[in-house]
Design goal:
- By secondary structure, the chain is of the alpha/beta class.
- Helix content is about 40%, strand content about 20%.
- It has an eight-stranded mixed beta sheet with strand order 1-2-4-3-5-6-7-8, with helices on both faces.
- Helix 6 packs across helix 7.
- The protein is globular and about 45 Å long.
- The protein starts with 5 loop residues before the first helix and ends with a helix.
- About 45% of the residues are buried.
């Protein structure tokens, strides 16, 4: 099968956002004040806390529509939306992964929860890893899919396109996201050295024709002291959406390991 180009994946995500937007009025949402701004989040289920972190340019339901009801049977789900995404308003200042991780940590502190299992897809996976680096006291285990620790993790053609579209002072969310992807994570946010300091068990997932290079994913996996690697066959970047029958069972088994 041909590799799924990142630009096509972004268009698919945009369609998912439109579908998710129609359901906003029915979503069981809450608001928290974090780092001087309001952050939207949803909760459901009961059991061990499970933090779900959505992808870039996406929402809770756009990323995890096929996981929310399943995981709520065994876990107490906390699912925030990052600044400028979904319900959470955009705020002034740079859009960075470190900022998203800081907001997420502040939310967990506000909710007085720690020792959480964290599941992050795409940008959410990057945020999950930074959270584990900077706030290990909040994290028990981590699952990431389609995450990269530097922009060079993207397919070369996709990265060239993102950098060609990059501008110095992006104004729209799309432009700010493109700048984020073209320039981040920075070495101060994630690197093999920082990953080697994560002393939590991590499941690293990737599609065999993901938007993230397979070699880069393997390098991420090898940098972690205690990790599992799962490569999903016949699968692109949208692992949670495309392969829920595999992903849900694999994630559940990983989180249940002694």
């Amino acid at each position: 099968m041909k590799r799924v180009k990142l630009v096509r994946m972004r268009l698919h995500i945009a369609l998912l956002l439109l579908v998710a937007a129609s359901a906003f009025a029915e979503e069981p949402g809450h608001w928290a004040e974090v780092n001087g701004h309001r952050m939207y989040y949803e909760t459901s289920g009961s059991g061990r806390p499970l933090l779900l972190l959505h992808g870039g340019g996406n929402t809770i339901h756009g990323s995890f529509a096929k996981q929310l009801d399943v995981f709520a049977k065994t876990h107490s789900i906390i699912a925030p939306e990052q600044i400028g995404h979904g319900h959470t308003p955009d705020v002034k200042g740079p859009l960075t992964y470190a900022r998203m991780a800081s907001d997420t940590a502040a939310l967990l502190v506000t909710l007085k929860v720690k020792d959480v299992d964290v599941v992050g897809w795409s940008d959410g996976g990057i945020v999950a890893l930074i959270l584990a680096v900077q706030h290990p006291e909040l994290v028990r285990r981590v699952v990431v899919s389609g995450a990269n620790f530097s922009p060079e993790g993207y397919l070369a053609d996709d990265l060239r396109q993102m950098r060609a579209r990059d501008v110095e002072s992006p104004a729209t969310l799309d432009a700010r996201l493109n700048h984020l992807w073209a320039t981040s994570p920075t070495k101060d946010e994630l690197s093999p050295a920082l990953l080697s300091g994560i002393h939590r068990r991590v499941l690293v997932m990737v599609g065999d024709h993901d938007a993230i290079q397979l070699d880069h994913t393997i390098a991420l996996y090898r940098a972690l002291p205690d990790a599992r690697l799962c490569i999903l066959p016949g699968t692109g970047h949208g692992t949670f959406i495309q392969r829920p029958e595999w992903v849900n069972a694999i994630v559940a088994s990983f989180l249940d390991e002694p």
